[in-house]
Automatic annotation (TrEMBL):
Residues 19-281 form the Pyruvate carboxyltransferase domain. Keywords: Acyltransferase, Amino-acid biosynthesis, Branched-chain amino acid biosynthesis, Leucine biosynthesis, Manganese, Metal-binding, Transferase. Belongs to the alpha-IPM synthase/homocitrate synthase family. LeuA type 1 subfamily. GO terms for molecular function: 2-isopropylmalate synthase activity; metal ion binding. It is an enzyme of class 2 (transferase). Pathway: Amino-acid biosynthesis; L-leucine biosynthesis; L-leucine from 3-methyl-2-oxobutanoate: step 1/4. One of its GO terms (biological process) is L-leucine biosynthetic process. The chain holds residues 1 to 400 of 531 of the full protein. Its EC number is 2.3.3.13. This is 2-isopropylmalate synthase.
Length: 400
C-alpha cells in the first residue's frame, strides 16, 4: 500500500466548452515499434509538450520497466505546468509504481485500465464480468487513496457490450475515478457510432456528472481523428492523442490534426483547447528528430507540403487571396511561411528564425558558429532544407 496520499489541484473546474488535451506521445506513442526514447529524449519531448500547453502529459508506463519509471520521475521533477501521468494496469503493484514515479510533479494523475470486451475477458484475462467489476471497485478505490486524480479506461470499450460497459464505468466513478476514458483500442469504430456511445454513457451512467469523459482512438482504419472529434460531439471533453499521430500499430489520434480541426472549425464544434498552436511545428519536428522518424511530406498540418503550392492554378489563386487554397495560416501552426526558402542569399536572421521554428533554443553565438557551415552547404544546392539545417545545428552536417 502506498503510504502517502498524493494531493493534486488538477481537478479544477473547467468550462463546458473546454476540451482537455491529454498527450500520450511518451506512452502509447513510445510503445510503437521504432519510437523508443531515452530519458533525455523523453524530457526534450516533454518540454515541447509543456510549451504547447497540453493539459496532461502521459509520461510513460511506470511498471513497464525501471527505465520508464525513472523517465517519468525525471519528467515529473522537471516539467512544470501540465499534469504528469503514468499508466498502470488495474493491480496494486502497478498503482504503487505509478504513484512513486509521478510523485515529484505538482499535478499528477494515475491512469489505470482493464480490458472489458468479451475477447479481452475470455482470451486474455480469463475473468468473468463479476470479477472485473469487483477489481475495478477495489483497485480504483486503492488508487484514489494514493492520488486524487484518477483516470479509468475500460480497454477495448468499443467492442464491449453496452450494458456491461455502463456497469464498468459506474463502478469506476463510484470508486473515485474522476476521468472516464473510452478507448477504441483497435481503431474499429465509426464517427456516428462513437458519438452515439458517448451520448449513451453520459446520459445513463450514474455519477456521470462527477467525471470528465475522454476519448482515445487508434488509427487502424484511418479514422482516429474523425472518431475523436465525433466523440467530442457526443460530449467527450478530453482527447487522448499524440504528436504526429504516433502510437500502437497505425497510431493514435494526431494531436496537431485534432487541435487544428477544433480551432479551424470552431463554428461547427463550439469548443476550444488551451493549446498554443504556434508551437505545433516545433513539437512535431522535435519528435521526428529525437525518434529519427521523418514527417511524411503530405502529412496534414505539419508536412512540408501542407502549405506549399506548386501548381500554377493554385499559385495564381493563393497570390490573389491565400484563402482560395489555404484554410489556415502556416504561421498559426508555427511553420515558417512557405515563401521563405533558405539558400545562399539568406542571412543570419532567416537562419535563426528557422532554427527556432524547428524547436531549437539556441544562442546568438550558436547561430554565428553554424553560419559558415550553412553558407558552405547553400553554395552547393538550390535550397537548404529543414533536415539539412537540423544536421548543421546538431553537428552532423559534415559527416553526411
Ligand atoms: O488503446 C488503449 O486501449 C490504450 C489504453 C491503455 C487506454 O492505450
Ligand atoms: Zn492506445
Amino acid at each position: 500500500m502506498t503510504t502517502q496520499h498524493i494531493k493534486t489541484d488538477d481537478v479544477k473546474p473547467v468550462s463546458e466548452n473546454h476540451v482537455k488535451i491529454f498527450d500520450t506521445t511518451l506512452r502509447d506513442g513510445e510503445q510503437a515499434p521504432g519510437f523508443s526514447m531515452s530519458t533525455d529524449a523523453k524530457l526534450i519531448v516533454a518540454r515541447t509538450l509543456s510549451d504547447l500547453n497540453v493539459d496532461i502529459i502521459e509520461a510513460g508506463f511506470a511498471a513497464a520497466s525501471p527505465g520508464d519509471a525513472a523517465a517519468i520521475r525525471t519528467i515529473a521533477s522537471e516539467i512544470e505546468g501540465p499534469t504528469i501521468g503514468s499508466l498502470a494496469r488495474l493491480n496494486k503493484n502497478d498503482i504503487d509504481a505509478a504513484a512513486h514515479a509521478i510523485e515529484p510533479a505538482q499535478q499528477k494523475r494515475i491512469h489505470t485500465f482493464i480490458g472489458t470486451s468479451p475477447l479481452h475477458r475470455d482470451a486474455k484475462l480469463k475473468m468473468s464480468k463479476e470479477e472485473i467489476l469487483k477489481v475495478i471497485s477495489e483497485i480504483v478505490a486503492y488508487a484514489s487513496s494514493a492520488c486524487d486524480d484518477i483516470e479509468f479506461s475500460p480497454e477495448d470499450a468499443i467492442r464491449t457490450e453496452r450494458e456491461f460497459l455502463l456497469e464498468a464505468v459506474e463502478a469506476a466513478i463510484e470508486a473515485g475515478a474522476t476521468t472516464i476514458n473510452i478507448p477504441d483500442t483497435v481503431g474499429y469504430t465509426t464517427p456516428e457510432e462513437i458519438t452515439d456511445l458517448f451520448r449513451f454513457l453520459k446520459e445513463n451512467a450514474k455519477g456521470a456528472d462527477r467525471a470528465i469523459f475522454s476519448v482515445h482512438c487508434h488509427d487502424d482504419l484511418g479514422m482516429a481523428v474523425a472518431n475523436s472529434l465525433a466523440a467530442v460531439r457526443g460530449g467527450a471533453r478530453q482527447i487522448e492523442c499524440a504528436i504526429n499521430g504516433i502510437g500502437e500499430r497505425a497510431g493514435n489520434c494526431s494531436m496537431e490534426e485534432a487541435v487544428m480541426a477544433l480551432a479551424t472549425r470552431r463554428d461547427f464544434f463550439n469548443v476550444s483547447t488551451q493549446i498554443d498552436t504556434t508551437k505545433i511545428f516545433a513539437a512535431s519536428t522535435t519528435l521526428a528528430r529525437v525518434t529519427h522518424n521523418p514527417i511524411p511530406r503530405n502529412k496534414a498540418i505539419v508536412g512540408k507540403n501542407a502549405f506549399a503550392h506548386e501548381a500554377g492554378i493554385h499559385q495564381h489563386g493563393v497570390l490573389a487571396n491565400k484563402r482560395t487554397y489555404e484554410i489556415m495560416d502556416a504561421e498559426a501552426v508555427g511553420m515558417p511561411s512557405n515563401s521563405i526558402v533558405l539558400g545562399k542569399h539568406s542571412g543570419k536572421h532567416a537562419v535563426a528564425a528557422r532554427v527556432k521554428a524547428l524547436g531549437f533554443n539556441v544562442s546568438k553565438q550558436k547561430i554565428e558558429d553554424i553560419f559558415p557551415a550553412f553558407k558552405r552547404l547553400a553554395d552547393t544546392c538550390r535550397e537548404v532544407t529543414d533536415a539539412d539545417l537540423v544536421r548543421i545545428v546538431t553537428g552532423n552536417a559534415e559527416t553526411d
